[in-house]
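Checked the freezer inventory, then went back to the computational side. Two predictions to log before the end of the day. The first one is the construct we discussed on Monday; recording sequence and tokens without edits.
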Amino acid sequence: MRRILTATAALLAVGLVLTGCSLPARFLAGLHPTARYYEQTVDWEDCDNGMECAYVSAPLDWDDIRAGDTELALVKHPATGTKRGSLLVDPGGPGGSGGDLVYYGVEDVATADILKHFDIIGVDPRGVGQSSPVTCYSDEKLDDFLYGITPGKVGSEEWLAAKTDSAEKFASACEKQSGALLGHIDAVSVARDLDLERSLVGDAKLNYLGYSYGTYLGTLYAGLFPKRVGRMVLDGATNPWYFPDDDEESDDDEGSFIDASQEEGFEHELTQFLAACIADQTAAVGDASCAFQGTPASALTEVSSLLDTVDAKPIAAPDGRMLGSSTLAGAIIADLYDTTQWPDLNDLFARVRQGDASTAFAASDAYNSRADDGTYYDNSTVANLAIGCLENGADDDPDSMREVAEELEKAAPILGKYDAYGDILCGQWPYGPVDFPDVVHAPGAAPILIVGTVGDPATPYADAQSLAKQLDSGVLLTFNGDGHTAYNKGNSCIDGAVDRYLLTGKAPKSGTSCS
């Protein structure tokens, strides 16, 4: 396995991390060939909306700069008051665009106090958004790939053959359109890009706000460059080294363990929604009535029946697409990410029962960054698939995938099986898997604030707990609530603790809990 601190990074660490100071560029240039990337000048240009935009170059392969360059896009919202530094932001995914997050909704990134004192810089990781992007299909072909109805029962020979044929064509198109980039969009490469971006924006240490998968990028950065960690907030933490069955971190990357925690999380959140809906809580139904009656258990049975119904007889949408069970399950999951979307989920169920697929497609389209006219306004879905396959690899043996499906269905009887067959695509992938990084402890790093939500369906709370223990300087801040991520969503306790940490460097006491 690759060690987190690779040989290339170690050369830079000797000059910068261990001494704790920045060396002159002319000296650094003689230290290692990658240093020329650190000598770039960032040419910020006004790009409307009060923002400044720039592109910088990074080596396609940090371990072999002869492989050429890749382009990284940055979007900056300048500090509105006295600047104390920069705050780099990644929204997760993988495949999420930090540039879009900042450009279109910087007020959703951080509170007014943080916007006042920090340049907020959204980063598009390599392969994502406006950085040199992964490309595969035209919009029309991507529609067919994502929404097409696969013949046969899920897991059957007919179904597997059709899925495999579709995956082969998609992977081939990605390789043809994106080339060698597909082999260098892994998280370790992105973490090394973060250090380049930190240096180019003029900060001695990295101030970073990462959400969801972005917390993994931050963790890897801390492992690579512990002495360069400034004020780092990891919200909605994911910890791939944590194995819930034995409550211990693990270096095992053989893929033998089936982690159903995310599937269980969404199933639990679905149950929470149904309970609130049946109780006619405004947060769940809005101005409407609940689409279900009875008990949460009976409602779960109805949801399962609804998925079976559209599986047997897909519902036509006005644009000609057909709503099958996979798309419906994905739409349900999309609306479970945030409790503010619960009224939309109630509307989805009510309409699908009436044979109306519009709300289900609206939820799925929003998740896949698809506009009403059928165009895709970013490459987040494609990048997500490409990064996942590069990092995780696949065991696409049909019997193994069926075993996974059985285990996931036991853990999450309604939604679990829809996550079981991703290895079909990854089994056709032309690159990877990359070596899984060694477990990160980041000795010597400044306090790292980890925010975990007890009812987070996407990144289980146990991941935040374990990551805080795993990192030598990890500090756990808990939100006793539901939804994916917690900062800047209206909870004054969470917002106050995070803001104080970002502004002063003083972290709350580990274990602090907010309701």
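The second is the one RB wanted added to the comparison set:
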Amino acid sequence: MNTVLVIALILAMAATLFALIRGIVAFLQASKEQLNAPDGAPSPSSLKQNKMMMNRILFQAAAIIIVAILLLMKGNG
């Protein structure tokens, strides 16, 4: 069981890193014109940035939950 959780933790950490890098790349690709758009509607780049950062938060939460489960199992074992 511990092995499965450790593998899941590594996958969650890798997914967190991947989402973080994709969000930063999307942020860096946003042009100044897109950032200063007067229409007020979010650009596709902004939407992608938001999506990647929300994914990062979800993956981080999954990693934290897995760590908590591992710690609980260690304490009860």
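For RB: Residues 32 and 67 are 40 Å apart (CA to CA). Residues 2-76 form one domain. Let me know if you want it refolded.
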